[in-house]
Amino acid sequence: MAEPRIYATYWIETAFPLQQAAETMAGEQSTGTFVRVPGETDELREAHAARVEEIVELGEVTAPSLPGSGLPRSGDATRRAARVTLSWPISNMGLSLPNVLAAINGNLSELKAFSGLRLIDVRFPPEFLTRYQGPQFGIEGTRRLAGVFDRPIIGTIIKPSVGLSPEATAEQVRGLIEAGIDFIKDDELQGDGPHCPFNARISAVMRVINDHADRTGKKVMYAANLTGDIDEMLARHDHVVAEGGTCIMASMNSIGLPAMKVLRAHSQLPIHGHRNGWGMLGRSPAIGMSYIAFQKLWRLAGIDHTHVNGIDNKFCESDDSVIASARECLTPMFPAPHKDCRIMPVFSSGQSARQAAPTFAALGSIDCIFAAGGGIMAHPAGPAAGVRALRQAWDAAVAGIPAAEAAGKSPELKAALEAFSG
Amino acid sequence: MAEPRIYATYWIETAFPLQQAAETMAGEQSTGTFVRVPGETDELREAHAARVEEIVELGEVTAPSLPGSGLPRSGDATRRAARVTLSWPISNMGLSLPNVLAAINGNLSELKAFSGLRLIDVRFPPEFLTRYQGPQFGIEGTRRLAGVFDRPIIGTIIKPSVGLSPEATAEQVRGLIEAGIDFIKDDELQGDGPHCPFNARISAVMRVINDHADRTGKKVMYAANLTGDIDEMLARHDHVVAEGGTCIMASMNSIGLPAMKVLRAHSQLPIHGHRNGWGMLGRSPAIGMSYIAFQKLWRLAGIDHTHVNGIDNKFCESDDSVIASARECLTPMFPAPHKDCRIMPVFSSGQSARQAAPTFAALGSIDCIFAAGGGIMAHPAGPAAGVRALRQAWDAAVAGIPAAEAAGKSPELKAALEAFSG
């Protein structure tokens, strides 16, 4: 039986012939050497060389996207873009995400043959599920803990990002709960600073959330940002559990995949994977990696939710890219009977009732956390009206009723659409 | 007494007025919100807002480096580059590298005001040394274990990168040791795959190294690539120690800072910090981060060596950038009496005797690991002559004798300069 393989797809830009450029990539990331050495036998190459699976030319480009690339010594030097897929046998790196990263990224971005090189997708064989646990709660588990089943989970974030005391944070949570919110998250800047220690903050917040749950039966999900060193994260997790919390949050780029694996193995709660820092990898079209590729690494490692930005967001990401990321979260990574590793996409950044219909139309699903800050707090009739307007906007979208028509029967939605007209 | 602060310097490109752009950065990464909220009091801003420390205009630019940026709604929209320094009080994030990352990188790269934004430096207050150990061996400790004191440590790498069995690896090590090498490293692609299990590889390699040390007194340093998940890395470290090894290697981008902290706390050996994957962050001049900034995070977390590429390398990095990185490794991060956290820069990538003189001239130091692959193996008179030529080239450089002149007295150096003429 053929050995399982890992597949990685790249966007490349090069002045070299595409076949040669793709083979350079495969060689650099497996058995290749600049000078052929005695140990590089045919058998070794047969067993361990990365393979060029596909090359799709995407057309000529007029100027190099990035500086520092080289030209062929002779012949045609037309610069082209292409999509290239490589594969590796899993025996090269073992069932190890850190070693997969070294293989699929490694030094590729620095190769002189390329004036652009970006990882756009990666596919794992299901054997990785024997070493990585994948999401523990995923979509269904998150819905169960949040008690929200037939619509998006409506979320928001604590603001200002940093500086509030534990008590002031809890007071803000109280207001948001009274407004009818389903989900609240710490800002990623709020960790465990001395002015707002994690344990004190979570204790204060959970007192408010638990009181409300006792009175009403609705337990709001609070994503507690426990980002830190490993021992700290495990201890903070235990504190959240002890206080009755239902979600933890970690900044993926801050902690790395091995720490996430440890956190996942320890966790009794869904893990909200915050992607801050991804712009460093994702912003340039010519380098880094797509969020399609990025999220798969982290889903395998165990996150249950991740941020995908939002339609018409305040950042630089295009709507197409946002929706591609969100749809990917809802797409199985592995076929049945394997765990599919689907997770909750989290829409955020400048979101309001205005984006409900286009988001539903593009996503084709209500399985998401739809988070708004100003889109709730700045509603002319207050935060409770802001939350209601968001729910009404989604209900209308799902029912196929245009927002403007639905607004005729809902003063909150009408006010939201007017206030957040973009 | 004023609270200690963290400083971060960025290269930015924006069509907004520079002061406004810098304040947007500071706001986004601390107390700012798009809509002013009740909790954002003057006292909170005074205590927790990031501060704009300096703005240095670098001139106008004709076109945006990256897509997706916005323009001011009115007024002048000249696009400019600038260098901006921000600072944060450490109480915002605590003494925590993962939370520092969220603060200094965070969502900055995605902000619409910028068509380029790159972290170029970061400065920590020495308080971080109460939480992070810094390098355990550094330059002096590495020299002591390698037994090389008055010249660069001459190094090389196992090739082909992946595919050799433990026994074939050990045979290659035997040849390199006989050639007089000081330092050998695993390729970053060689981890713990089933065809070359880590423990078997290190046992086979150390048998050769220990035999040679017993006979000659010279113990070659072997950087064993233990990159993996945390439990794996600790167990592999213990195996290296048990076999008498003197160095471990980890791919920094694969493991993350929290895993490095755990590894450093556990390690009895120098940690060779491999930077593969850095091209994703470093290749574009308009996004990501410089290696100056990157290495400081990892030095604080505990690495003892790191790669800086080499002069006239096979990759895309400029010589200026290479030398800036290398000099930074040799520059104290903290003033006395604090630990200075200086580490060994590792030159590699297309290096040979040819680059010794310009490297010494630019670095002004012999404190480095100077690694060559083809520059040793492809020497016309064999690997032993390759190693001798490298040592002779460095001796000549340090003595101020031009390489061509020194080559008159050394056939190995003469042959190397001819063979590796670039």
TrEMBL record, chains A, B:
Keyword Calcium (UniProt): no
UniProt key word Magnesium: yes
Every Ribulose bisphosphate carboxylase large subunit C-terminal domain range: 138-420
Pfam family, one: RuBisCO_large_N
Family indicated by similarity: Belongs to the RuBisCO large chain family.
Natural source organism: Novosphingobium flavum
Gene3D superfamilies linked to this entry: Ribulose bisphosphate carboxylase, large subunit, C-terminal domain, RuBisCO large subunit, N-terminal domain
A GO molecular function held by the record: ribulose-bisphosphate carboxylase activity
Keyword terms: Magnesium, Metal-binding
Protein name: Ribulose-bisphosphate carboxylase large subunit family protein
Required co-factors: Mg(2+)
UniProt xrefs under InterPro entries: RuBisCO, RuBisCo_large_chain_AS, RuBisCO_lsu_C, RuBisCO_lsu_C_sf, RuBisCO_lsu_fd_N, RuBisCO_lsu_N_sf
Cross-referenced PANTHER family: RIBULOSE BISPHOSPHATE CARBOXYLASE, RIBULOSE BISPHOSPHATE CARBOXYLASE LARGE CHAIN
BP GO annotations: carbon fixation
Top-level taxonomic group: Bacteria
Domain Ribulose bisphosphate carboxylase large subunit ferrodoxin-like N-terminal: 15-128
